[in-house]
């Protein structure tokens, strides 16, 4: 089946999450991705559990649809091999700390001279410019700097990290859209270009509602638990046996909720709840009033009643419940595949369902250095030269 990015050649020198997630998605869409791992131990996630037959599940999750090399870039031969790959590449992705690529001789200016059409994407904690550019930065530091941790959690509680590495994934998504934009530009007759992506910038760009409140009224986002900053009821509520989510955030839904679900007609004339803005201002009071009603029945009772009345609602799942939900399964968000060492494996599916060029799982994540010989043969190396590279600790 045809895929949108067939023919695109990507060289991936990134590791851990943001860069590998970006190149995984490009591979899912048909790009030929070569992951070049550092000598001798490879991507840092190879040393992170859980393990299946000594292979890291974390590594396998974000490195599917790639071929893999293990290359010593501190050796002259290793750099020479990378240069050969670059000359034929469309895209290069790296996430070294700013300044490291210059020392290695793989900075943008150097590689651009070899391949003017190269799209070079750097992903770092704080970006390539600015007073913090040389600092190392992980997802949790980005969550702290972007204000995300300070606005997450329950009122008067400690700052809370979002449950996933949200800035890493935000940076990956920013890199994907930027690479594709640059690729389209090049297809229209343009040249390659440099892309500077930072974890902080990428996550900060997602705080659009919070920015509107600050720029518009000078409001600094506070912790609101599950509540929305500008709409109510729109949050999680306790029931007799758990918690559910209710989103009756416009006037029509609010009226239906009051009349048909909780049977509280008096709330429609309560001066605290007359408009969405007033309900948001009095969200804590409204939460108590709603929960006083909801704790009388279990979650399923309310979810069925809300569904019948067309009010957006849903459960609050544990992660295992999410992965076993029939809707998630029907949407093919869990894929089964075979790994040469791990055996029968599962991974997450493709969130976008393209009718003509869908994502495909063609190959599992590579073993360390699995495709060294295959790739070197494509570059013109014979068996004798490859044996020499092994002995000189250039490849593994």
UniProtKB/TrEMBL annotation:
Keyword check for Transferase, yes or no: yes
Q: Which UniProt keywords apply?
A: Transferase
- Write the protein's name: Formyl-CoA transferase
The residues forming a coiled coil are none
A GO molecular function term, named singly, is: CoA-transferase activity
Q: Which InterPro entries match?
A: CoA-transferase_III_domain (IPR050483), CoA-Trfase_fam_III (IPR003673), CoA-Trfase_III_dom3_sf (IPR044855), CoA-Trfase_III_dom_1_sf (IPR023606)
Source organism's superkingdom? Bacteria
